[in-house]
Amino acid sequence: MRNEIAITCPCCSARLVVDTHTGQVRNERARKEKGKAEDPAADPFGDALKNMKDAEKTADSRFKKAISSEGERGKKLEEFFEQAKQDVKDDDTPPPSPFEFD
Description:
Layout: E1 4-8, E2 15-19, E3 25-29, H1 44-90
Antiparallel strand pairs: 1-2, 2-3
């Protein structure tokens, strides 16, 4: 048994795919009107190219930000390690003997 049905809207002639269990519209396809020309100013390839360039810029900026944060993280870890080495160097207590744990 199918879980969805396709209906044509009487108002706008759009094609609707409706889930029979929930009653929600899963897919909607608007009908192209005959005689209407597409907008001549619309350039789908130009828009796609612009979107690709914007995505490339965004990815590049995110990559640079990640690289700089990793560099800062490395510096902080190096400082922490040097501080720990200094603390061990300043501490005069001998390390515990493994035979004293009994």
